[in-house]
From TrEMBL:
Feature: compositional bias, Pro residues: 216-228
Family designation: Belongs to the VTA1 family.
Region (Disordered): 158-255
An individual GO BP term: signal transduction
Record-given protein name: Rho-GAP domain-containing protein
SUPFAM superfamilies membership: GTPase activation domain, GAP
Length: 555
């Protein structure tokens, strides 16, 4: 599709057509989705003028041809797989450009990579609301492509972001500028190929999805000059950890993993401030604060002065919690200490804490909200087309999360007797379960399981039968009960969903891809856990090791 044919009224979509043309033979999936986005955007701009109508009709014809040629490609026929492919493509370009820029190695290929990554991230709007990391990275990539392009064009020295002083970065207004193709000095016209994402090598029908550590987190963007600066001279990306003697109250310090979480959220906060996104700034600031554990010395002193605790009586099937002041030995004499409410939310907390805040009444070792979500989908959504792919409105999921958090507050401590009282439809239950799993601060699947899964030599036409299954089983058996039970419920439930694929259209590729994203794990890990969780998916086979054969989902 020639750029010369783009009508003047549709100049805004020329970026996507150019990127599509560059990838027509290199990556047909990107070619298709970029043209698809161009059509969608073009119809919103001008679909009445004869020139625009003719051009858009021609694009539609091209799309139909591509769709027929790639009819067997899941990244074309499935939006879930397509979204992952586009995210992966954009992320690799962004990562390439970001590393080169920070090292000061700028040239036309870096400009082109930032430019392409930013506009390919625009294409993600086809699949719904863009996740915050991609939204921030998109704006940053477009701004960097503009900044570096101007330096190359004018011959001015470029200062890498890693060397910029804290007050050197302009505000978000600079990102609104877009390069014009008519500029003869525009380096984009040279069609450099800085980085070509490799073709997907599918296992089990699942495409490769970037893991958490590779997601396009916006680079360290310093705050505006008027914002108060932290007392530390180190950047948010540094790995300096305070000594054990520092910190408020003189108590425990965050672990290395917790510092990584804190760094991630503070980067998001600074990025949101630069883009004047108040909601995102507040939300990520709260997450950063919640990632810091309580300083136990100060908390113990508070409890000594005013030991206010939630007590549950033994010998009853219901949770009869009430607040009362206890003496130091009251828990041994009068009841069983269940928890001390400290204002903690249910979502985004470690699994063990979430279980204490929202326990199942029959003592199954997973939070009640997880079981209620799974129970509702099993009862009302297994045959619902697009279950787990179709997402409920964010505002509704926010309401559900707030309701779940209120149940973790002893002042509002009451269990909902029926899942019908919480959810309106199965998409809400599925969406809330995904949100809970994504918010878990620790990895749900042990890194050792990821390593073992990569060694599997099975063809995935059935359950894993090689030695890897025994090794994975050993690792899973060694997990704490809450973690093992959570994995068991998630993957056995996933098998139940896949069994209804003729109705819900959620087979192994589609649902497996979602599990990769939600659990932030590798493709082959999802493959082996789906195949060997229980005999549900492929039936019982002698000699096969089933990881969770002892677990039954009880409504």
């Amino acid at each position: 599709m020639s750029l010369a044919k783009v009508p003047p009224t549709l100049k805004a979509i020329a970026h996507y057509i150019k990127i599509a043309n560059e990838n027509a033979s290199r990556d047909p999936v990107i070619y298709y989705w970029c043209l698809f986005h161009a059509v969608q955007a073009g119809m919103q701009i001008d679909k009445t003028s004869p020139e625009a109508l003719t051009f858009l009709t021609s694009l539609l014809g091209t799309l139909e041809t591509i769709k027929k040629q790639l009819a067997g490609n899941d990244a074309i026929t499935s939006e879930v797989v397509g979204q992952a492919h586009v995210e992966n493509f954009a992320m690799k370009l962004f990562d390439y450009a970001d590393k080169k820029e920070k090292a000061g190695q700028i040239d036309k290929s870096v400009v082109h990579a930032f430019y392409t990554a930013g506009h390919v991230m625009d294409v993600l709007t086809l699949f719904g609301e863009i996740d915050e990391p991609y939204a921030s990275a998109k704006k940053y990539a477009k701004w960097k492509s503009t900044q570096i392009f101007a330096c190359l064009r004018d011959g001015t020295p470029y200062v890498p972001s890693s060397q910029e002083p804290s007050d050197s970065m302009p505000g978000g207004s600079g990102m609104a500028h877009e390069h014009q193709y008519q500029d003869s000095n525009n380096p984009f016209d040279s069609n450099p190929t800085p980085y070509q994402p490799p073709r997907q090598n599918n296992d089990f029908g699942l495409p490769q999805v970037p893991t958490h550590t590779n997601r396009p987190i916006p680079p360290n963007i310093p705050p505006q000059p008027q914002m108060p600066q932290p007392s530390s001279t180190g950047s948010f990306g540094s790995t300096n950890v305070p000594s054990s003697g520092s910190g408020g109250g003189g108590g425990a310090n965050p672990t290395f993993q917790e510092w990584e979480q804190i760094r991630k959220y503070t980067k998001y906060v600074i990025s949101a401030i630069d883009y004047e996104d108040v909601k995102a700034a507040i939300d990520n600031l709260r997450k950063a604060l919640e990632a810091i554990p309580l300083f136990m010395g100060e908390e113990k002193e508070k409890k000594r002065r005013n030991p206010l605790s939630l007590v549950t009586r033994k010998g009853t099937k219901k949770v009869l919690g009430k607040w009362r002041k206890l003496e130091n030995n009251a828990d041994a004499q009068n009841g069983e200490l269940e928890s001390s409410f400290t204002g903690e939310k249910l979502f985004g907390r470690p699994l063990e804490l979430a279980l204490r805040l929202d326990p199942s009444l029959d003592e199954i070792q997973i939070p009640a909200i997880v079981r209620q979500s799974i129970d509702y989908v099993n009862a009302y959504g297994l045959d619902l087309e697009g279950i787990y792919r179709v997402s409920s409105p964010k505002s509704r999921l926010d309401e559900l999360e707030k309701e779940a958090n209120s149940r973790a507050n002893p002042l509002h401590f009451c269990k909902i007797s029926s899942t019908k009282a919480l959810f309106r439809d199965a998409h809400e239950a599925a969406g809330l379960l995904k949100r809970f799993l994504r918010a878990l601060p620790e990895s749900t699947i042990p890194p050792k399981v990821d390593e073992l899964a990569e060694q599997c030599v099975c063809d995935w036409k059935g359950p894993c039968t090689c030695e890897v299954s025994n090794l994975v089983f050993t690792e899973l058996t060694a997990l704490q009960k809450p973690q093992r039970h959570l994995l068991a419920y998630v993957f056995i439930h996933a098998q139940q969903v896949i069994q209804q694929e003729p109705k819900n259209k959620m087979g192994v590729p589609a649902l497996g891809l979602l599990l990769q994203q939600v659990l932030d794990t590798r493709r082959r890990t999802v493959c082996i856990l789906l195949a060997n969780a229980s005999p549900l998916l492929y039936g019982f086979h002698d000699g096969v090791v089933y990881f969770f054969a002892d677990v039954v989902i009880i409504p």
